[in-house]
Each structure stands twice: as C-alpha cells, then as structure tokens.
Amino acid sequence: MKIVLLNFIGFLLILCSCKNEAKKETSNEVTNVKEISFYTSDSIQIFGDLYELDKKGKTILLFHQGGSNARGEYAPIIPNLIEKGYNILAIDQRVGGQYYGSYNRTLANIPTNSFGDGYGYCDAYNNLEGALDFIIDSGFSGAKIIWGSSYSASLAIQLANNRQNDINGVLAFSPASGGSMKDCLPDKYFETLKIPLILLKPPNEMESENSKLQFDLANKYSHQTYVPKNGVHGSSMLVKERVGSEVKDTWAIVLAFLEIIEKQ
Known about the structure:
The model is unreliable at about 1-30 (pLDDT under 50). Strand 7 (about 195-200), helix 7 and strand 8 (about 225) form a beta-alpha-beta unit. About 35% of the residues lie in helices and about 15% in strands. It is globular, with a radius of gyration of 21 Å. It is of the alpha/beta class and about 260 residues long.
C-alpha cells in the first residue's frame, strides 16, 4: 500500500511538472497580434501585422521584397525576433505579390495597381515612412530598427538617412544595386548615414560588379557588410528551408548587429 501511495505521489509530481512546462511554453506565445492599417501621404491604405510586446521596448519594422508580402516572407523569421523581445510591425507594401505564399493585402485593396498603372519600386518609399510614423504615433518609445529585403532594403537605407533622429539602426538584405532601382539607389546615402547599418548579400549576388562596388563604398564609410557562405536573395537568407543549408552563422551576425544597436 505504501509503495502504491508513493508511486501515485510521484505521478502527481510529474503531472504538475508537465503542466508547469506547458504554462511556460504558452507564456512564450505572442497573444497580442493584430492586423493594422494606415494611409500613406498619397492616400494608399497599407495593411500590416503588429506584434506588440511592450510599447516601451525595442521595435523592428519589417519590409518585404518585390513580388512578396509580409506574412509570406517573414512567417519563419518573426518568431525568432519576438523571442529576443522585439515588437514587430510587418507591412504589405504597394509593390508585392504572392511570393512565399499568402497574398499582399495592400495590393488587393487598390482598385488599379502594379507597374502597369505607374507604380514602381521607388514609389513604395512612403509606405516605409508611413510605417515608421505609425509606430511613433502609436506610442512605441523604445529603439526603432528598420529591416528591408531586396528593393525595400534600398528604400530602408534612404529612410534611415532621412530620419536618423527617429531610427536607431537598419538591416539591408540584398539591397538593389542597379536596374529598375536607378532612381532610388542607396549608395549615395552611405556617406551621410551615421546610424548603424549592415548590408547582407549571398555569394551569387556578389559576382555582380555593382554589388562589389556597393559593398566597397559601404565599407569606406564604416558600415558593416556580410556575405554568408550560403544564401538566397533578401531576408530569406535567414530561412533554412529556402537556403537549403544551415543559416545559424547568418543569424549570429544579425543578432550580434542588433545587440550593437541596443548598446548605443
């Protein structure tokens, strides 16, 4: 009888431990996530998702690449950033699509859109600036970091240069270095940008002479650059399934850069 009682007590202890562990896991889940929208200076309604942990805490603003959208591109990335304690705002810019799944809510709500109706990559600049203003107007008072992918990486550098008093750092994944971005290339801002900046590009993109010159110019003005051993275009270089190999080293560089921003 005594042995049975001890076994029963042991079972209860294990059960309580499991429940506590379940509570611990649940506490790490983000429950305060909501869809938001705001209007740009030219009256385009921009849709996005706000992951709020603490308005006094640090916030990252995520901007997707061409042909994509916030949910599709950043679904595998956002949980890692939330785990590090960041509020997140991820928006659908007016130039995007269904790449990586989901769909672009902003485009879906514009009656006539896309390049055929006059929108180009550079026209999305006020989408990024509107996102920054939304976060400020919403009372987020901690450090603000902007994060761009492909064309939005170039626009993020421009925004960081223009709003240096409001932004604490910028990450630029595969920033454009020519072609259709010729009217809003980021290179001219490297000299005047004084807040922390890191540029990241995969090896195949560094075969381009424009990319090499861009990195050389960024290094000249003491900005960080990084070429992962393996990688793909844009922020997806942080997603193992998209790269086809481990991405721990790239994540380590990104997190180290974020820590540098926090210490400033």
